[in-house]
Structures are given as C-alpha cells and as structure tokens.
Amino acid sequence: YQSKKMKLSKRISVHLGVKEAANSIKKLTPRINFKQSGKKTEKLSDLAASAEFGDLLAVALISGQNPRASLESISGYLDEKFKIEIRNVIRENAFGKPLMHSLREMSEKPQTVILKPLIRQMENAMERGTPLAEVSRIFAEDQRVKFRNQLMKEAASKEIAMLIPVVF
Questions:
Q1: What Rg, from alpha-carbon coordinates, does the chain have?
Q2: pTM above 0.90, yes or no
Q3: Distance of CA 63 to CAs 70, 106, 165, Å?
Q4: d(CA 86, CA 70)
Q5: Pseudo-torsion of CA 27, 62, 88, 13, nearest 10°?
Q6: Is the pLDDT of residue 93 over 80?
Q7: The dihedral of CA 34, 76, 137, 108: what is its sign?
Q8: Which of 2, 79, 102, 155 has the most neighbouring CB atoms within 10 Å?
Q9: What is the rounded CA–CA span in Å between residue 168 and residue 158?
Q10: 65: which residues sit within 8 A by CB, 6+ positions away?
Q11: pLDDT tens-digit profile of 123-167?
C-alpha cells in the first residue's frame, strides 16, 4: 500500500511539475499572432507553434513520463490545431493503435505536417534507444533557428522595399 501511495504521489508531483513548466514556457514565449495573410506568415506561426510543442514535449519527457503520458499532459497547452490532432492520437492509442503509427498518420495531415521531422526522429530514437527528450529539444531549437532565418529574410525584403520610396 505504501509503495503504491508513493508512486501515486510521485506521479502527481511530476504532473504538477509539467504543468508548471508548461505555464512558465508559455509566459516566456508569447503567442505570435500575425495579422497578415499569406504563406510566409502562416509558415512563421507554424514554426513558432512547433518549437513550443517541442519544448513542452521535452519538459514532459524529462520529468519521467512515457511518450503517451507526455503528449497527454501537454495537449492542453498546445496550439489549437495541434491540440485536436494530439487528442485524436491519444484516443486512437487508448483503443489499441500503436502510438508511433498514430503519430505518423497525424504528421501526414496538412495542419500538422510541420511535425513530420520530429515524428521521424522520435521513431529513430526509439529504435536506437536514445533519449526522446533530447530529440524533442533539438527539434525545438531547429524550429527556432528556422523561425529566425525566415524572419530575417522577411525583414530584409521589407527593408529593400522601403528604400524605393526614399530614393524617389
């Protein structure tokens, strides 16, 4: 009885720790809302959301949860399009479908195709026995670098466009 009680208290503290970490990550990385429409702005917001997804997943995995429990605990803090798809994956896994198979199918959908590299890297990590948290953290960092590069490209194109009226 005491061992089960300790396991339950440990699981509760881990869950609360993941929620705390998720809230602090959300405070540190404010939501990026782009008012303009277009492919570039959608790509920027997708990159920001996927980086946040990678960070939250890494925090949940580091706390000692398995991949399914990690996805379940972070699903409430995700971007709306990711939240729906992750909850569908969890539901499919609960009914017996393998988690990685469900994640692979999810990554084929247009709204979550940006997570495809992460899913492939997670599959490789599980086959090799490498830590999933590190894979997730590296994915988040890659997405942040892509975000910065895309932002710099857009800023450079705006700068050149703004020079034309000044010259004439």
A1: 19
A2: no
A3: 9, 25, 54
A4: 11
A5: -80
A6: yes
A7: negative
A8: 102
A9: 16
A10: 14, 18, 73
A11: 999 999 889 999 999 999 999 999 888 888 877 777 766 667 666
Give the Cα separation of 26 and 159 in Å (integer).
Answer: 31
What is the DSSP-derived secondary structure letter of residue 37?
-
Counting Cα atoms < 13 Å in the Cβ hemisphere of 137 gives 10
How many beta carbons lie within 10 A of that of residue 66, not counting itself?
12
CA–CA dist 158, 67 (Å, integer): 42
Least Cα distance to 19 among 86, 87, 72, 84 occurs for: 72
Nearest CA among 122, 111, 113, 68 for reference residue 91: 68
Is residue 122 within 8 Å of 132, Cβ to Cβ? Answer: yes
Burial (CB count within 10 angstroms: exposed 0-12, middle 13-18, buried 19+), residue 116 = middle
Show the tokens assigned to 93. Answer: 């896994």
